[in-house]
Amino acid sequence: MLEGKGNCMGIEKVAVLGAGLMGRGIAHVAALGGYQVALQDVSDDILAQALKVIEGNLKKGIELGKVTKETVEAALGRIKPVTGLKEAVENADFVIEAVPEDLQLKHQIFMDLDTFCPPHTVMATNTSAKSITEIAAVSKRPHMVVGMHFFNPAHVMKLVEIVRGLETCDEAVRLTEEVAHRMGKETVEVNEFPGFATSRINAMIGNEAFYMLMEGVASARDIDKALKLGLNHPMGPFELGDLVGWDTRLKVLEYLHATLGAKFRPCPLLIKYVKAGRLGRKVGRGVYEYPDKK
Ligand code: NAD
């Protein structure tokens, strides 16, 4: 049971911590959902850059006929950039943490949230693979801590995976679902387990595709084509891995290998690509070449 405002509260104020790749998209959909959004990061420059990206993406929505100019102006007016954590969260009903994937940093933030947030605040983390239970363990209110896993780009991708840690209470899960729906997202609820529901399967497919490439089953292009046209995947596993970054993918595989066992053993060829610096689109070459990004 939540303390303070309890069940009958309406969530109106959302704080998004971290204005990077994910935080920007989350602030975008929160503001479009009608929430007052405090977007917090460590510097004014990062926040200004984030607001520019959000504005650009919202305006693309007007061109595509998805939103009106008035809706975009109102949404932008609801986002307040702040550098101080206390200022961002002291009146927040719902916090979404989207800082880098570093357990120590997330622990520090969840301890600070204990100090600054009102008693009724739900505290969500957008971690892609870390344990919600472990993040919540430093909190004096672990029942209020929940996983809210968005996908990249967060303003486009439909799914939010809601992850229940050991202590997460039903009301925190219900409110997270409500917030995600108001942001226009579909949700699935999963119990915490390494890789949740999505990262686990995705890592497995990408790794298997690399084993097939190493074994000479087919070319990367043909493996991608086979999965797209034969199995109806919107992107091939190599195209997707190039987008996500093979270094990121390798980190997830190493974690899954350590926690779930041999079936997630990273393919030696994938490791070789990472060692060679062929990390994907972000560096101009991965499995494919991206000359414009070099
Ligand atoms: P990012 O590096 O693009 O952004 C992180 C932001 O947090 C940066 O702007 C940084 O300045 C800011 N930051 C650092 N320390 C901070 C602090 N103490 N207080 C406030 N802000 C701080 O990272 P990202 O890709 O947006 O990832 C954020 C989280 O989302 C991670 O946990 C990641 O695993 C998860 N995630 C990422 C993806 C993805 O595809 N990138 C997808 C799903 C989930």
Explain what this protein looks like in three dimensions.
The chain is α/β, with parallel strands linked by helices and 294 residues long. It folds into two domains: 8-191, 3-Layer(aba) Sandwich (Rossmann fold); 198-284, N-(1-d-carboxylethyl)-l-norvaline Dehydrogenase, domain 2. Helices cover 47% and strands 13% of the residues. It has helices spanning 21-32, 44-63, 69-77, 85-89, 103-116, 132-136, 170-182, 198-214, 220-230, 237-244, 246-260, 268-275; strands spanning 13-17, 36-40, 79-82, 94-97, 122-125, 145-149, 159-164, 186-191. It is globular. Bound molecules: nicotinamide-adenine-dinucleotide (NAD).
Strand pairing plus helix content: what structural class?
Answer: alpha/beta
Which fold name is given in CATH as the topology of the largest domain?
Answer: Rossmann fold
Number of strands: 8
Q: How do the strands line up in the largest sheet? A: 3-2-1-4-5-6-7-8
